[in-house]
Design brief:
Helix content is 74%, strand content 0%. By secondary structure, the protein is mostly helical. It comes from Lysinibacillus zambalensis. InterPro entries: Cyt_c/ubiquinol_Oxase_su3, Cyt_c_oxidase-like_su3, Cyt_c_oxidase_su3-like_sf, Cyt_c_oxidase_su3_a-hlx.
Amino acid sequence: MDFNTKFTPHTWPDHPEQATMEGKNKVVGFWIFLACEVVLFASLFATYLALKNKGPAGMEFTTQSLFELPLAFAMTMLLLTSSLTSVYAIYHMRNFNFKAMQTWLGITLLLGLGFLGLEIYEFNHYVGLGFTFDQSAFSTAFYSLVGTHGFHVTLGLVWIATLMLRNAKRGLNLYNAPKFFVAALYWHFIDVVWVFIFTVVYLMGVIG
């Protein structure tokens, strides 16, 4: 199919992100990229588990005394809900409903910003207590893991916002459909990573 073909909801392909060879290559290439990301986060998780609660003798901060599950749970709900809204966005993309897709992507952005706001509040609270990046091996491992995830969330928000703005007047076509799809795929990935962070860092940290 040609990028310049004029489509209607009836002629739009069921999976527009893979309707062209370029689209298929983008999707396959992105899966390879995500595999590299898995290696990165696996290394950060392993480092965190090795250094958890490790530091100077009589260190002041531990996972039980530091982490608060209600805050981490609220962050989790925001991010999981944003994953659901991105699913709705791709559903409407596949049904050639550009306006609905943009709406759900906008909601995804708001939820992601809410998550980032809570994470910034959490980090600021910890720093105020004296739990800084260089306070101990534990703090360095914690900020490296959770901070790297937060950086990925920020990149995802910038990516989605840029796609929305650049294509606001263009509508849907076979050139930008794969771009929206891989952006949503990236967003699902960082949501899954957060589920592991919530479980390994916060839940296991609090309940021991």
